[in-house]
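note to self — DONT lose this again. spent like an hour looking for the file last time. sequence + predicted structure for the chain T wanted, 90 res
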Amino acid sequence: MAKNESLPLRRVVQVDRRGRVSLARFGISDTQLVVEELEDGGVALHPAIVMTPAEARHYGNPEAAAALDQALASAREGAIRRFELRPRRD
């Protein structure tokens, strides 16, 4: 390991009799995590982002994701216009 690389933060945590561990000391609170069980019996925690199946299909489609990125960039620049989903009934 090179001198300027830091070692991962390691701490001993207490698991209570109900199997709970507080992650607050690691700055993890009020969030959802994916827990990955490792072959050696350990666990890895990964931040989770919950989405609907439709959102997952959208983000899995490069053209759709690019179109959304372009639309958001236009909105940030103020280039927006009203879009009617249904015809107005006046």
